[in-house]
Amino acid sequence: MAKRYVAIWFRHLMTDWMIRRQPALKDIPFVLAIAVHGRMVVDAASKTAGMQGITTGTPVADAKAIVPGLEVFDSRPGAEAKLLKALGEWCIRYTPEVGVDLPDGLMLDVSGCAHLWGGERAYLKEIVIKLRSLGYDARAAMADTIGAAWAVARYGQTSPLINSGEQLQAILPLHPASLRLEPEVVVRLQKLGFHRIAGFINMPRGVLRRRFGEGLLLRLGQALGEEEEFLQLIYIHPPYQERLPCLEPITTATGIGIAVKRLLETLCKRLETENKGLRTAVLKCYRVDGITVQADIGTGHASHNAAHLYKLFELKIPAIEPALGIELFVLEAPEVEEASPPQEKLWAAGPGLENAVVAELLDRLAGKIGAEAICRFLPAEHYWPERSAKPAASIQDKPATGWRLDRPRPVLLLPNPELIRVSAPIPDYPPMLFHYRGKLHRVKKADGPERIEREWWLDPGEHRDYYTVEDEEGRRYWVFRSGHYDKDRHHHWFMHGFFA
Fold first, then answer.
1. Which of 218, 237, 256 represents a domain boundary (last residue)?
2. Does residue 97 sit in helix, strand or coil?
3. From CA 449, how far away is CA 480, in angstroms rounded?
């Protein structure tokens, strides 16, 4: 497939931006000025000021003499780059490959994109109309090369659409400056009477190199497609990305859902053929008003199950505000992993966490209540209760050791033991009753003590004597007394966990 490029030229970039911010300036001549060698000169002139003879580089004093009442504003160094980057990000709705062309343009690699808008002419017209509706005086051209598109956008007087292979005919009548040459080279060409590219293009290459330098031949070769030229992209799109432009703006949740389904089906089919699955996905919705809204999901394991992934996005759709309509959907999978083949366990009991259905259920729960609300713990090689379990990083993590089954352990362990008041008949006996969070609990059954020594090589402190107790309502608790019993000091009891 032949490469196709679109060059966009903003003839009054910064002044158009000023008018967008202050609409009252639309019909008023004004300039942006910058200090050069101690005097203020025009850095950018509005369209109205330009029509009255004000050009870039004109001293501000002269400009005011030419146009009485001329408004002057300070120029902002570096603002062009920021503005072009923002406009480039807006243009991603037309192609994922956009580059900034300082000081006043953008360059788009549109190979394979135009058919989505009904052909190249309609595609180019759509881009220009939309940019002008935003308030920017934009011109654009399409060609096989970056150089030809740039030249025609700025200097072309005929059709901005250059058919494939016709870049030579397109640039012949253009001014030498359209080749993006250095100013001194352009001046030298003009002094010799070369006011069009056709005047020197057929001259021997050796003569052109000696008189005008290697840069002229390079730019000429780039315009004709004989030298390679690459865009410096403002955004490197993920390798796993799908785009869905809309013929009419989408304004309903049903329409958004249909778009998400189509994108997921296409992306997941590709992932499946490559034995991969996504761990995170981002849906970007480009609205007609220029605002981008997005929704993202995550999975506990690599998945290319389109139906499951849609259920996760389905929870996010109500929060997507379409406003006047969404004209482009982009689905990206920034985090992709190898997906192991599913292990069918139809005849095996208890597939556990290896069952894909369990993993997908956890993903749906995470989408509703948040991933931070779901925890999985693995056993750790410690006797001290607070260190006996550790959080798992993912559902695939395998335990390094087994859970202790010789002693009962609560299903819920408090991160920090909580102080309780206890009445016990004999110090080494379990409590008869205890007060916890303002409520009195009478102990009906008890088991213990189980002494757990502190890991002295990690931190100093007293041992604990644990009891499993059950109150009159059938609730079971894990409580402990800290340290040895001593009649000369007060003993502290603590609540540390709850049994099912």
1. 237
2. strand
3. 8
